[in-house]
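User: Can you predict the 3D structure of Bifunctional NAD(P)H-hydrate repair enzyme? Sequence below.
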Amino acid sequence: MRSAHTVHDVRAAEAALMARLPEGALMQRAAAGLAAVCAGVLGGAYGTRVVLLVGSGANGGDALYAGARLARRGASVTAVLLSPGKAYPDGLAALRSAGGRTTADPAAGEELVRRADLVVDGIVGIGGRGGLRGAAVPLARAAAGSGAAVVAVDLPSGVDADTGEVAGEAVRADVTVTFGTHKPGLLVDPAAGFAGTVHLVDIGLGPDLPGPAVQALQHADVAALLPVPGARSDKYRRGVLGVAAGSARYPGAAVLAVAGALHGGAGAVRYAGSAAREVIARFPETLVSTGRPSQAGRVQAWAVGPGAGEDASARVALEDALASDVPVLVDADGLRHLKGLGRPARGALAGRTAEVLLTPHAGEAAALLDVAREDVEARRLEHVRRLADAYGATVLLKGSTTLVAAPGGGPVRANPTGTGWLATAGSGDVLSGLAGSLLASGLSAFDAGSAAAYLHGLAGRRAAGRDGAPFGAHELAGELPAAWRDVRGAAH
Ligand SMILES: NC(=O)C1=CN([C@@H]2O[C@H](COP(=O)(O)OP(=O)(O)OC[C@H]3O[C@@H](n4cnc5c(N)ncnc54)[C@H](OP(=O)(O)O)[C@@H]3O)[C@@H](O)[C@H]2O)[C@@H](O)CC1
Ligand SMILES: [K+]
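Assistant: Sure. Here are the predicted C-alpha cells for Bifunctional NAD(P)H-hydrate repair enzyme:
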C-alpha cells in the first residue's frame, strides 16, 4: 500500500523527529536519497552535466546538497538561483566546496538547461502555493523542451501537494523523489500526471505520521481483498449479483455490465430488465428476467443504471433496488434518477441498512453536486469527499486517477493502474458489473470499488498492449481474468 499525507501532517512529523536528531540530519538523508536516484537516472554521475533549479526554501537546499554529492562523484554541476539572496546558505557552501558553480542569470540558466543531461527541480516543494512564478516558468519550459531527464525534488514545482490541483504552469518531471511519505498530489490527477515515476526515500518519519489522507493499493493489497472460493463454496455462498441495466435503446450496456459482473467473483448473476434476450444470447450462464429488481429473486447486491435510459421504468428499478436490504451500486442513468429523487432520496440512502456505492464520472459528479464539471476535474479529491458526505454513500469518481471515498472521512483511495485507453464507450458499464460483483461477494463498498478500479485498470493496460492501441469494452472485459491472475500471481 502506498500512503500519502498532507503537508500539515508531514510538517508535524518532521518537527517531532527533528527534535530527536542532530540539526540538518533529515536534509542529509533526503539529499543522499535524491543524489542516489539522480546517479541512477544518469547511469553514473562522472562526466555528466547537471543543472539545479534552486528556489528560496529547503526544497532548493535538498537540491544543493544532492548537487554537491554529484559534483564529488565527477559531475559538472551548476545551480541556477531563482532567489539568489534566499538560497539555502549551507547548501550553497556545500555545493561550492565540492566544485559546483552557481548563476543568478535566468537566460544563462536556460542555455545550461538546454545542454544538460539532468535537471534537478528544487524550485519549491511542500511550501508551494499556486503555479510557477517569474523566471521559473521559462526555465521549466526549457527543461521540458530539452533532452535532459528532469528529476523533481519532493514534488514537481507548481503542483499542489494536498489537493492535486495544478493552478498554473508546473514542472513536468520524468522522476520525482519524495521524502518520508507520498503527498496526495503525487497520487491524484492532474498533479500526478506531472510527477513521472515516483521514488519514496525513507527519512524516518514513519513512527511520527498519523493515518494517511490518500492511499493507493498495490497488487498484494488487492490480492488480499479478492474473494476466492473455498472447498465448501457454492454459487449462492459466493454471492449473487443482480444487474438492472440496459434498455431498448442501449441493450449493449446490459451485456457489458454482465460481462464485468461475470468476472467479479460472485457465484451467479441475475439480470432484470428489457435487454434480457441480448444478455442471455451472449452469456447463457446469466439468470434473466424482464421484470423489476424485486421480482428477480434473491441477490446479495444490485448494480443499477448503466444504459438504463431516462424513462420511468429506470427510475422504478432504482427505487426498487434501493428499497432492498442489500448493497446497491448506482451508475450512469441511475445517478441521474437518483438526483431526480431529490432530498428524500438522499435521506433514504442514509437510512439504508446496507451500503450504497455511487460510480459517477466527473460530469455526473458535477451534476449531483450542482457544481461545474471543470471544478470537479481540477479538485477531484475535494469533490469525491464532498459527494460521499452529501449523499452518505461511498463514491467511486471515475477519471484519469479514479478515486474512492467513503462517507464520514478516512483515507481516499487513488487507483494507480489506470490508462487513458480506458476512456472508451462501455468501459464504465464493465466497471459497474465488476464492482457490483465484488459487493455481492461480500466486500465493503470501499474495498469493492477500489479493487474493481484496480482490476479494470490492469485489464485496460493489458487490452491496450505494451505500445498502446485502442480496444472495445468487450475486449476489456475479456482481459479481466488475466488481470486477476496478475494480481494473485504477484502475491504468491
Ligand atoms: N518536511 C520534511 O520532513 C522535510 C523536508 N525537506 C524539504 O523541505 C521542503 C520544504 O521546504 P520549505 O518549507 O522551506 O518550503 P519550499 O517548498 O522550499 O518553499 C519555499 C518558498 O518558496 C516560495 N514559493 C511558494 N510558492 C511558490 C511558487 N509557486 N513558485 C515559486 N516560489 C514559491 C515561498 O516563499 P515566498 O516566495 O512566498 O517568500 C516558500 O516559502 C520539502 O518539500 C522538502 O524538499 C527535506 O529537506 C527533509 C525533510
Ligand atoms: K520541487
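Residues 10-11, 14, 26-27, 30, 55-60, 62, 123-133, 136, 153-154, 158, 179-180, 203 surround NPW (ligand 1) (CB under 6 Å). The chain has two domains: 2-214, 219-491.
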